[in-house]
Amino acid sequence: MQETNSNPVTRQPIGTHIAAHCARRPKAVVLEGRFGRIEKLDALAHADDLWNALKDSAELWTYMAYGPFLNEDLFKTWIVQRAALNDPYYYAIINSQGKAVGVAALMEIRPEMRVIEIGHIIYGASLQRTSLATEAQYLLGQYVFETLGYRRYEWKCDALNAVSRRAAKRLGFTYEGLFRSHMIIKGRSRDTTWYSMLEDEWPMRKRAFEKWLAPANYDNKGRQKARL
To answer: Does residue 3 have a pLDDT over 80?
Structure first.
């Protein structure tokens, strides 16, 4: 529930005062983790790895406005185009062997409102359900809140995308509602589910991530003991 104050003249309820400084825009940083890293998407550095990681997974593109790609040349053209964008701002997810195995983007960037969204998340099969898959979201959340200074972090997805909805909930985003007939994607109607995480929620979410990713949460076979 939004906190309120009272307008001293009209006595109407109004929101609490928020300092008017802007957040920062995403940049070409390297975010290092224990299981891999995140870095700015670069067509020359990442296109070959990403094609190999994503080419045989048609299901990855079902809810996207693009893909699947018929051949490597079309895919690499798409990567070149995506790497040049400022919003969405794309990052590659790099595994411990130095291979790009997925992408994610910070988007709908509104520094003056300190609101930003995570989206265009595409994980290759070798990345899915791994520690790096979760660590990548932890690294991006930490970057958004602690370095860039955003107060609201959004997650939106097709309402039919059960995998994305489960991921948002697992990662600590709060369900906010359904936007009916929100978009037309590949000639089909899309309802969109909205989730968010707020800056005052991040410290608790961060502790949960770090506890889950800690070496103490892994047994001698590399399996995690407790869920996120």
So the answer is: no
